[in-house]
Amino acid sequence: TQGQVITCKAAVAYEPNKPLVIEDVQVAPPQAGEVRIKILFTALCHTDAYTWSGKDPEGLFPCILGHEAAGAVESVGEGVTEVQPGDHVIPCYQAECRECKFCKSGKTNLCGKVRSATGVGVMMNDRKSRFSVNGKPIYHFMGTSTFSQYTVVHDVSVAKIDPKAPLEKVCLLGCGVPTGLGAVWNTAKVEPGSNVAIFGLGTVGLAVAEGAKTAGATRIIGIDIDSKKYETAKKFGVNEFVNPKDHQKPIQEVIVDLTDGGVDYSFECIGNVSVMRAALECCHKGWGTSVIVGVAASGQEISTRPFQLVTGRVWKGTAFGGFKSRTQVPWLVEKYMNKEIKVDEYITHSMTLGEINKAFDLLHDGTCLRCVLST
Ligand code: NAD
Ligand code: AHE
Ligand code: ZN
């Protein structure tokens, strides 16, 4: 198949919110600096649903969504040296080129090399898509497009992993789990003995809990409007639970009262701008730090009284938990293999690519954390 167009099945999003269509898609060979990957397993993340909803200004249609996956390299383009056919890999929507201003800064995991292309659904080389259906181009998404049996990505967006790692599990290390762990370890840098509040106990919030537990946090307070979330959350380290619906007062006041003035760290893992405000305002005066992890829709804005920051609270955000993807995803895979981090526990459902619309329905069901599709 090397050097040839591959025809395979992919789930195409033709229009916002219209069911995805399983199509025969043509996938062009990788050009210079590109890698064609046979996707074996892909999970769904709420960010896919967000873009599908039409609220993401970077969501272009028709496109192939998906960004949490694992597979094997099928072929590589000219000049690609770090991976070869057969290597097991995780596509990384957050690239790492190790050469750009961002990568060299030592201050961020964001990478500038291919971002201008991945935000508009094309490849860097020729600003075109490698996907088509009957000659009509289909946009890429987040530089990954994993809801397909084959995809083409930039070489700076590929993490080569231990071939012994079970791909049906470690596909989760492409997004949600690292995001939560890294929000605690890299972005907030939670110290032992800290009090932590987590707003939203989906996969991302639970991974924050796991990160907080391993960082030695003392009180890990989970906040969710679905009380059923507490039972599962306990297994990830949450040791107190508050449902905002059980209280008359604003939730930030409830947390401040519970914690003698506020928490040391809070995390917003929902994507709701009023909860982002509450998460900042439940932080302790003088030092409390709040990290925004959830993705809010285009056009939404955050607000608070500047006095909240004047008096020492800190407002931050995180993308992919601050992890340098190509370097650290393989390290996270090793941590999983050594049983130092959970992954299996986040997988509540398994299906096939053909059942993807059913899998999207499940995202809105409180019992689903991650659904893994075999392609
Ligand atoms: P999820 O939907 O599984 O979890 C959200 C949880 O929040 C649910 O348990 C829900 O009951 C709860 N919730 C909803 N409204 C609430 C409210 N007002 N108060 C308290 N709880 C409330 O989602 P997820 O997969 O865990 O993802 C969470 C967010 O993180 C999404 O916005 C996703 O797009 C984003 N995300 C960001 C990054 C990043 O790099 N920054 C990476 C992955 C995901
Ligand atoms: N395209 C959206 C923003 C989406 C967003 O914030 N994405 C997160 C990852 S979410 C993964 O589930 C991210 O890492 N952003 C950094 C980046 O460079 O995209 C919009 O609203 O425009
Ligand atoms: Zn995601």
TrEMBL record:
Segments forming domain Alcohol dehydrogenase-like N-terminal: 32-161
Cofactor(s) of this protein: Zn(2+)
Pfam families according to UniProt: ADH_N (PF08240), ADH_zinc_N (PF00107)
Segments forming domain Alcohol dehydrogenase-like C-terminal: 204-327
GO biological process, one term: formaldehyde catabolic process
UniProt-listed InterPro entries: ADH-like_C, ADH-like_N, ADH_3, GroES-like_sf, NAD(P)-bd_dom_sf
Domain of life of the organism encoding this protein: Eukaryota
GO molecular function, one term: alcohol dehydrogenase (NAD+) activity
Coiled-coil zones: none
GO cellular component: cytosol
Keywords, in A-Z order: Metal-binding, NAD, Oxidoreductase, Zinc
Record text on subunit structure and interactions: Homodimer.
Protein name: Alcohol dehydrogenase class-3
Higher taxonomy: Eukaryota, Viridiplantae, Streptophyta, Embryophyta, Tracheophyta
